[in-house]
Amino acid sequence: MRIATILSIALLCGSLTHELHAQVGHDLVATDFEFTPSLLTISSGDTVRLFLNAGHSFREVSAATWNLDVADPGAGGEFSPTDSLVEHDFVVTTPGTIYYVCIAHVSMGMKGRIIVQQGTIGMEEQGSEAGRIFPDPASDVVHIADDPRIMRVRVADALGRVLIDRNMVGYRQLDVTRLPPGRYELILLGRHDAVLQRQSIIVQR
Questions:
Q1: What is the largest CA-CA distance in the chain?
Q2: Is the pTM of this model over 0.90?
Q3: N or C: which end of the chain has fewer CB within 10 A?
């Protein structure tokens, strides 16, 4: 499940920044073989400031993998270790729980969770849905009910990275076969990139 890139590094998805308007900032620090705090509760649309000290990493995993204290397989967002302190800023837009570990030190219990509660971002758009999105879960194609207001569609992972951004004029099917299994946010846009609807979808094989 994914987080936004990012970041001071550059992923903090510029393409989403004007839409998400993060409400609150939260610090998450990886040092001394632990994440502090190991349990972080935020609202969708909030910014997480992740500070990774030298040698530590961040990998999103499934709940099952997290419970086994292993790092593989990954399930979404990942930040690799470096030789110095690095800050990664990301925006989480989809409610749910993000399970993550330090790849090298998960066997030592270096892991944590981010609980994302429903915030107010996009609620005004969601109150008037643009169209039905189906199936969910999807394996190859997502169908979007016909609505002349829909101009574009974006698909973001749990870290907020935009993986698909395409014109939808004249189209009502979205190919998701290249997306790895996981949860994503599908964003329907109208004229001038106005957000019409946001919906969480699951891609599975």
A1: 54
A2: no
A3: C
pLDDT for the residue numbered 25: 82
Count of residues in the chain: 205
Sheet strands side by side (includes 173-175): 133-134, 141-144, 173-175
- In this structure, are residues 32 and 11 in contact, taking their beta carbons and an 8 Å threshold? no
Q: Which positions ≥6 away from 124 have C-beta within 8 Å?
A: none
Secondary structure (3-state) at 88:
strand
pLDDT tens readout for residues 152-173: 899 998 888 889 999 887 778 8
Letter string b/e over residues 26-42, b meaning 16 or more CB atoms within 10 A of that residue's CB: bebbbeeebbeeeebeb
State the virtual CA torsion across 114, 120, 122, 127 in degrees, nearest 10. 120
The proportion of the chain whose per-residue pLDDT surpasses 90, expressed as a percent, equals 38
Q: Nearest CA to 59 among 88, 16, 23, 93?
A: 88
